[in-house]
Write a structure and sequence with these properties.
The protein is of the alpha/beta class. The protein is built from 5 helices and 5 strands. The protein has one domain (about 5-120): 3-Layer(aba) Sandwich (Rossmann fold).
Length: about 130
């Protein structure tokens, strides 16, 4: 199955790393946003399967984006991964309150990201369609 992802990070190196990790998996489309404002435009017009967002960005931070996504009917099905150089603490707790499915500490390995995304996108066991 092909998935649609959004990577939101002000670091072009991190976006390139995450993109390469996802594109070698089952992702047919990967969008990037370098700012929170770019991300808001994309989130308002596209439904994503997974959104990977950095906490610390210069304009709209990752927690503010999660807050927007929590209220957006278009993004209710999106799996949300928050990434940050700081593990635990108030950002991690707040991200869970705002609907994040996972919190990943930078730097992280390609395999860790792929495994996490695969777990989040796996169909629930025992659910029939």
């Amino acid at each position: 199955m092909a998935y649609y992802a959004l990577i939101v990070d002000d670091s072009s190196a991190v976006r390139a790393f995450v993109r390469a990790s996802l594109e070698s998996s089952d992702f047919a489309r990967v969008e990037e946003a370098a700012t929170g404002f770019e991300a808001l435009r994309l989130l308002a017009t596209h439904a994503f399967d997974v959104v990977i967002v950095d906490v610390n960005m210069p304009d709209i931070n990752g927690l503010e984006l999660l807050s927007f996504m929590k209220k957006s009917p278009r993004q209710q099905g999106a799996r949300k991964i928050l990434i940050s150089t700081q593990a635990g603490g108030p950002d991690s707790q707040r991200s869970t309150e705002l609907g994040a499915d996972a919190f990943l500490k930078k730097p992280f390995a390609v395999d860790d990201l792929r495994e996490l995304v695969a777990q989040l996108l796996a169909p629930a066991e025992g659910v029939s369609g």
